[in-house]
Amino acid sequence: MIPAAFEYERVDSIDAALSALKKHGDDAKLLAGGHSLLPLMKLRFATPSVLIDVGRVKELSYIREEGDSIAIGALTRHHDVQHSDLLKAQVPILAHAAGQVGDQQVRHRGTIGGSVAHGDPASDLPAVLLALGGTMVIRGQTGGPREVPAADFFTGFLETALGPDELLAEIKVPKVPGAGWSFQKLTKRAQDWAIVGAAVVRNGSSAGIGLVNMGPTPLRASAAEAALAGGASIEDAAAVADQDASPSQDINASEEFRRHLARVLVRRGLEEASAAR
């Protein structure tokens, strides 16, 4: 449980962080809250030679309105997302889900950007961003910022669209003040990773459904979304919620049990979201 040796570098601006990434190349990792990276390093699943601490880059911590969207800086703590009055009013599912991440210590230290950039399929917030149709704003040293839809951001197990010399600067989510929503997950203990989870946002006849821990990446229940758009009932849509998933088997659940949970949680989520509209 001891990580391999590494160098530590602390930066206080986006430009300094990007310069450090370019200098150290593929061997460098950005350190924000550390709740995703440090456990991997202790198990030696990740062995960066340099850690670049961006925790003091204040320009990456904010929540603000931008037209029809809410912009959230990547270093915004889960606690601040949870208690944001702006998010509670305009994107309540995101504020609620942030309050379900880990325990209070994790929420006070962990960041939304760190959770998203890690790309863990068992994380709560990526599924919420998929359901909302969020966008990731990525910064590099050359060119302007580039925007990547959440649906294209997660590319493989713990892999994202971020290049080795780029950082996630911001997350944009559309305002959905009148939409029905629900966030469902099953855990052994409140602070555990979800065995399976479902984020549902329903607005009129359309719905966004994100799944937690149902494949190698965070993913959308596209078949269920399409069924609802075609006029299917909640029961019929939920019955195909696992169609696009490829869940793993582990000590917590078999593949078939995870599929069953996905169908149940999506049905419950759709029922709650529909009742709230």
List the helices and strands and how they pair.
Elements: E1 7-10, H1 14-24, E2 28-31, H2 37-42, E3 50-53, E4 63-66, E5 69-73, H3 78-82, H4 85-90, H5 92-98, H6 104-109, H7 112-118, H8 124-132, E6 135-139, E7 146-149, H9 150-153, E8 154-156, E9 159-160, E10 167-174, E11 180-186, E12 196-203, E13 206-212, E14 219-220, H10 222-229, H11 234-238, H12 255-276
Parallel strand pairs: 1-3, 2-3
Antiparallel strand pairs: 4-5, 5-10, 6-7, 6-10, 8-9, 11-12, 12-13, 13-14
Helix pairs in contact: 5-8
- The portion of residues forming beta strands comes to 15-25%
The secondary structure category is alpha+beta
Strand runs, count: 14
> Judging from the principal axes of the Cα atoms, what is the shape?
globular
- The total number of structural domains is 3
Output the helix-strand order.
EHEHEEEHHHHHHEEHEEEEEEEHHH
SS element count, helices: 12
- Biggest sheet features: 5 strands, antiparallel
Q: In order across it, which strands form the biggest sheet? A: 4-5-10-6-7
Indicate the CATH class of the largest domain: Alpha Beta
Characterization of this structure:
The protein is an alpha+beta fold and 277 residues long. The chain folds into three domains: 7-53, 2-Layer Sandwich (Uridine Diphospho-n-acetylenolpyruvylglucosamine Reductase, domain 2); 61-174, Uridine Diphospho-n-acetylenolpyruvylglucosamine Reductase, domain 3 (2-Layer Sandwich); 180-276, CO dehydrogenase flavoprotein, C-terminal domain (Enolase-like, domain 1, 2-Layer Sandwich). It contains twelve helices and 14 strands. The chain has a five-stranded antiparallel beta sheet. Helix 5 (92-98) runs antiparallel to helix 8 (124-132). The chain is globular.
